[in-house]
Amino acid sequence: MHHHRVRARATAGALLAAALLTTLPPAAPAGAATTVAPRVDLTVLVVDDGGGGVAALTSELRASGVPHRRIALDDPGRPVIDAAFLADPRDPATGRPRARFQGVILPNEAPAGLGAAERAALADYRRAYAIPQVDAYTWAHPGVGLDHTDQGGYAGTLDGTAAAVTAAGRTGPFRYLDGPVVFEDNDPAVPESHGYAGRPREGYTSLLDVPVAGGGRASLIGEYVRDGRRDLVVTFAYNEHQRQFRAVARGIVEWLTGGVHLGLSRYHFAVHVDDVFAPDSRWNTERNCTPGDFDCPGGDGEDASTIRMTADDARYAAAWQRTAGLTLDMVYNAGAGEEWKAAHGGDPLTDQLLADRARHRWVNHTYTHPFLGCVQDTSTVPWRCATDATGATRWVSRAEIAAQIRDNHAWAVAKGLPVDRTELVTGEHSGLATLPQQPRDNPNLAGALADTGVKWIASDNSREPAQRPVGTALTVPRHPMNVYYNVGTAAEMTDEYNWIYTRRSDGGSGVCETNPASTCLDAPLDPATGYAEHIVPQEARTALRHVLAGDPRPHYAHQSNLAEERLLYPVLDRVLADYRALFADNTPLVTPRHRDVGVELARRAAWDRALAGGRIIAYRVGGTVTVQAPTGVAVPVTAPEGTRKRALLGSSAFGAPYAGARSAWETPGTLQTALTLTLPTTT
To answer: What integer best gives the mean pLDDT of the chain?
Structure first.
């Protein structure tokens, strides 16, 4: 029996190596002429039981732009999944049999919410059109091609377990992964992941496995082939935020679609360093506030200490970027540097940064970093918007805003900095709405942006995660990094962190007790070790979670974090190391500049609107993919290596290589009404 099972698994592995990278040519439906290739719509059917696995997979489809139709099993008005719902024997547009879905996601292999007739209709549909199915989360048993876990497998907690991609996975849908997929273990006292690892039976090819007691390995993800159907079987629980899911999510979608689908995904990591050339105020560990800030009792700024990079810090930044392979965006305030130079008779920092100008990217942060919203009345804590005699809000003028933008840009041009006038980050994201004091944008902001040619203005993602227009400009939301602007040492950082995240009974502010979005530390962190042992791994984990979700939004810190003890580098080093340990060289981090993030978010929004409006028509017939979209809407597409884009005369290579496939935002060629791709002959 054992030798028979080995032979069966080898056969399945050979089949997988030949066919797993791309969808097998769809079979003609029962009763149809075998010479007629069907039309297969590029849409995924999602059958949702409300469980975490389906929700996580849906989030991946949504984030990468893959069209899908969700059927909620608990909806009494949902459509019946029958032959008529799934397919059309003769599509009016093409005269061919039509499969309405290229893949199916089910909660498990036989969800209770689907009747027997619906399950039979799905099985017939999948056989007829060679449609694959993902079983989002199930247990190990012979019905999915696995032995029970008591037959040499495992059932239980997976926290901290290092799963490995098998040889079949590396040549198949997980070819973008390099290192182990380690299950998160953020709190040793709390079980976070559970699963079943089973040994493969006939027809099952393991793609992700773990070692088990007694020797050998057992599967957590694998392909099960039988009676004309292919299932991807997942036997561990997960949610959309866990790193282990994010690591395999791309591969699950690639397997489900055969590598041919609308939507694309990149892993982005851009880092903005604000306040370059300017000093930042320092946290006072005795007062638990920052002198000079409006809410710091007794601190009028005269006793405030500041943190500012030195020339040595600038040289270190340039050297670190070369070694790390990550270019930082220097978000600069030239006027602050000029003020420092005048007060100190020179400025070695500015001289060094200018000498290294070509090693960085540069983004306008206004000349002197003023608040560009309402005129602030600081006689109260918190501050409020000043008003005139009629009670109307007083605003910073259009001319003042434009001068701040224009003067900073002109300085950069005169110094030879490679700066783009369309990009802007205002001080504290000011000018944009700031709750609770300023519930709307400065009405003078949009005009000033137009006057100075700004098209992309930064916003704070923690307050405004969605891109929106500001006059003719669009916002670019940025993720704030939890490395504070007002600290230069690990001890200062830990002290402020403790103040924010510990209870009053532990000497903290107690904010964590009253803010529903926050949690309190069990005990204050040790000032000597808290930053390295707690804050760095936590902040790196948060940043990497954004990266693995395909989020292009930049992360931002401050120049103070590159000064003194250079607190930002350990966080960035951890993110880069964890990423590169997991992914293969064919899946590099993408570091878009400010404007490119804006363009990406705008494209995604337009694509999502077109999908929601039912204005996308996309299907595959044999080796040809056809996509029709509204004029001006770029189409995200992912396809195998060797795919070509048709033109009126001839064709050209499609897309750019990434993660073992090719992908791009595309539009139809000149005088064409549809985007047409020719897949490689092996597809």
So the answer is: 93
